[in-house]
Amino acid sequence: MKKRYRLIFAGCASLVILIVMFMWLTGSFSREGKIAPGKHEVEETSASGLRTIEVKAVTIPVQEEAVGTVTARETAEISSRIMATITKVNVDAGAHVEKGQTLIVLDSRDAEARVKQAREALASAEATREQASLDAGRIERLYEKQAATKQEYDRSQTALKMAAASAEAASAAVREAEVNLSYAKVRSPMSGKVIDRLADPGDMAAPGKPLMSVYDPSTLRLDASLAEHLRSKVNVGDAVTIAIDTLGKDLEGTIVEIVPASDASSRSFTARISIPQSEPVYPGMYGRIRLPVGSAEAILIPPEAVEHVGQLEIVTVVENGIARTRSVKVGKTHSEGVEILSGLVAGEVIAVP
């Protein structure tokens, strides 16, 4: 039994020794195995012939980012004012339209018939009024000569007033019928672009049923949600940088409106930013804005001074004529250079290719 335990113990001890030897050979016990920015210097060479610059701390603007969606301030859902069959659609989605341009034509036969009936009724009413006017004039002359009674005179005046009222009502009916006839042509309420076409010839148009939507490109803006703590740092008229990812470039915008209420669920408020009209931007696009909220000291160096080796970012530090490579942590890229978050301090000298 003791011999068996000794064999088991010897086997376990041998296994432990093998594991320790493997870890030692792979460098698991070496402190230099892990790389920390600014702590690991990999290579030393002579600095002779290298172009160098002194690292300096500079003041950079501090910006906060917010996301938003492109919207149009002036958008119209177009529908018919009368119920009729669509006979023609003149434009498609994406088309540019002018204010008052005919977009959709409706079947106008019923409306034309009502106009004709109204005009005939008006002609009859005007004839009746003309006859009532002649009769009233004749009775008035007879009444002045005491050849007609007061009752006849009053009756003629009443008939004239009733005929005049009927003629006026018939005239109003003609105007109403003509207006309804004009509704057979659905027109654009603004100059702009067609967002979507929702109807085809043969469809039935009815009041309140959307047929087409139009927006004015000159009223495009970015509706951005800003965190509540930024409210005191932004004002109408402030300039901001807009980034529309699909454009691949930054735009300059201006805050034109700030909604005076916060969203309780997201703890944010909405700021509306104007967008340059010359850019190919459309409603619904995703965008971001960068707001200047202050300034800070930072280390900036030329981008070409940073060498990428695998997942490491390396710079060459020159000290006492010796060039040593050192890993650093790189932050955002600015117009003056890339920001170094750690690994360099002001006053050090680095090599620049």
Might you state the CATH topology name of the largest domain? OB fold (Dihydrolipoamide Acetyltransferase, E2P)
Task: Please bin the fraction of helical residues.
Answer: 25-40%
Radius of gyration: 43 Å
- First CA to last CA: what distance? 73 Å
CATH architecture of the largest domain: Beta Barrel
CATH homologous superfamily heading of the largest domain: RNA polymerase II/Efflux pump adaptor protein, barrel-sandwich hybrid domain
Detailed description of the structure:
It comes from Candidatus Abyssobacteria bacterium SURF_17. The chain is an alpha+beta fold and 353 residues long. It has three domains: 32-60 and 298-351, conserved putative lor/sdh protein from methanococcus maripaludis s2 fold, CATH 2.40.420.20; 65-74 and 215-294, Efflux pump adaptor protein, beta barrel domain (Elongation Factor Tu (Ef-tu), domain 3, Beta Barrel), CATH 2.40.30; 82-214, RNA polymerase II/Efflux pump adaptor protein, barrel-sandwich hybrid domain (OB fold (Dihydrolipoamide Acetyltransferase, E2P), Beta Barrel), CATH 2.40.50. 26% of the residues lie in helices and 41% in strands. It has helices spanning 2-25, 109-144, 150-182; strands at residues 41-46, 52-54, 57-72, 75-79, 84-89, 96-97, 102-106, 185-187, 192-197, 204-205, 210-215, 220-227, 239-244, 249-263, 268-274, 286-301, 307-309, 312-319, 322-327, 329-334, 337-342, 349-351. Strands 1, 2, 17, 18, 19 and 22 form a six-stranded antiparallel sheet that branches. Residues 24-42 have low confidence and may be disordered.
List its traits.
single chain; 22 strands; 3 domains; rod-shaped; OB fold (Dihydrolipoamide Acetyltransferase, E2P); six-stranded antiparallel β-sheet; 353 residues; 41% strand; conserved putative lor/sdh protein from methanococcus maripaludis s2 fold; six-stranded antiparallel β-barrel; Elongation Factor Tu (Ef-tu), domain 3; 3 helices; alpha+beta
